[in-house]
Amino acid sequence: MKQDRFLTGILIGIAVLVVIALALFLTRTDNLEYVAEDTPEGVVQNYAVALYKKDYEKAYTYLSNGQYKPSFEQFRDAFLMNYANPDQAGLEIGKTNSSGDTATVELGVIFAPSDPFSSGYRSTENAVLGLENGLWKLRQMPYQYWSYEWYQEPYNEVKP
User: Is the pLDDT of residue 103 over 90?
Assistant: First the structure.
């Protein structure tokens, strides 16, 4: 009889934890919000928020108009085909270093653990921006948010 009460207590405890977890999941707020775009860190945040919200048209507006800029279709397809996948990482925006018309924003890219027995990790990366017509535009981001093909000279096969 004592073992039955102990087992019942454990089951009730598990049920309470499941209810609490569900309540927290359902009541959590989505704090992905756009901010002012007049600073390099604001542009980085808005670009990441647009990607997390799958608003590729808005995200595309934050790209630099440099040589070999990807077309919108190339940009969107990089995310749809998981060549770049921001859903696999979180982003923490750090300090900004500006020099004239160029800025570098320090980013903490946070990766969740891949299984219950490992811990996540964090790497420090940079976003590079340039000032174009009075607006900050992205020239480079970490690979989860950027495709290595963008802004690269297209490959031309050399024939002998």
Answer: yes
* pLDDT digit string, tens, across residues 133-149: 999 999 999 988 999 88
- The whole-angstrom separation of Cα 72 and Cα 50 is 14
Closest CA to 79 of 61, 100, 60, 98: 60
Torsion on CA atoms 130, 132, 134, 137, rounded to nearest 10: -50
Handedness of CA 58, 138, 122, 115 (dihedral sign): positive
Residues 66-88: what's their mean pLDDT? 91
CATH of 31-145, one of 1.20.1530.20, 1.10.760.10, 3.20.20.70, 3.10.450.50: 3.10.450.50
Structure-token pair, residue 136: 């900050």
Task: Name the band, by pLDDT with cuts 50, 70 and 90, for residue 94.
Answer: very high
Amino acid at 142: P
Check: CB of residue 47 under 8 Å from CB of residue 110. no
- Are 96 and 39 in contact, with CB atoms under 8 Å apart? yes
Alpha-carbon distance of 41 to 139, in angstroms, equals 13
At 134, list the tokens: 């009075």
DSSP 48-63: HHHHHTT-HHHHHTTB
